[in-house]
Amino acid sequence: MKRKNQCRSGKAQRRGGAATFVATSMLVVCPPLAAEVDLTGYWSPRIHEDHETRWEGPEFGDYDGLPLTEKAYAIADAWDPLTYYAPENQCDSMGITMILRIPGNVHIYYEDENTLIIKSEIFGKIRRIYLDDRPREAGPHTWGGHSLGEWDGDRLRVVTTHMLPGEDHGGLRRNGVPTSADMVMTEYFLVHDDYLSTIQIVDDPEYLVEPLIRSISFRKLPDTTTLGPWECEVIVWPDGLGPGGG
Predict the structure, then answer these.
(1) What angle do CA 180, 216, 4 make, to 5 degrees?
(2) For residue 167, what are the CA distances in angstroms to 81, 84, 93?
């Protein structure tokens, strides 16, 4: 899906010889010239890989496919789902490694020529990917961390650091599997016709004995799509367990 060159900004335009101007309520920002493909638009997840844990939610003690350290096993085994799904905790956002893996559409667009936005329908979370190699501002780790992207032909490579650790509720899977503050996530975004593929490589020296590699697939939605407001509804789940993803 090659990027089209006919990208117009929201600047005022003169029609004919009359002093008539067209104003837009929102700027349309073009992808950077280095981009070989266009990632922008609305995308719907295809729950092909790890369907059960992503759609229905993982069971307690289900760590299949995760190369965990002994310390990670100990933390996950001590996880208390009654605490995680307690009413006061249900509206907390999940970690950035999981937000794209659960059912929910996403909107990808450019905030400016150097900032790619991924907005999730789940919790309305917004993630920024910087394409100009800007340094991270001083401060504590955040939900989205610091993401730097670089185009490599038709692939966008993104490296994210400084993410909040997930040691109390689970960072890699919503059944207590933790992540540390030293975790680094490398992603590759590729477009094939109407499909967007993301390869996710997670390195965590504290909780993984080797990199965890997962894939996520999306299908393009019409440009008229809108993300519905995700209002967290507090639910009392049987035995404290509820739907998850990971």
Answers:
(1) 120
(2) 13, 12, 14
The encoded tokens of residue 167 equal 């040691």
Q: What are the strands, taking DSSP E only, across the chain?
A: 13-14, 21-22, 41-46, 106-112, 115-120, 126-130, 146-152, 155-161, 184-192, 195-203, 212-220
Contact by Cβ (8 Å): 172, 202:
yes
CATH H superfamily, domain 41-240: Calycin beta-barrel core domain (2.40.128.20)
Q: Which tokens hold the place of 32?
A: 């950077």
Question: Rounded to whole angstroms, how far apart are CA atoms 149 and 104?
Answer: 23
Estimate to the nearest angstrom the gap between the alpha carbon of 25 and the chain centroid. 27
Q: Which residues pair with 82 in a beta bridge?
A: none
Q: Which residues pair with 213 in a beta bridge?
A: 201
Burial (CB < 10 A; 0-12, 13-18, 19+), residue 172, is: buried
For the chain, the domains span: 41-240
Q: What is the pLDDT along the chain (246 residues), one digit of tens a residue?
A: 444 434 533 333 333 333 333 333 344 576 666 666 899 999 999 877 765 566 556 778 889 889 999 999 999 999 887 776 677 666 666 778 888 887 789 999 999 999 999 999 877 889 999 999 999 989 999 888 999 999 998 999 999 999 988 765 557 887 888 999 999 999 999 999 999 999 999 999 999 999 999 999 999 999 999 887 766 777 776 655 555 445
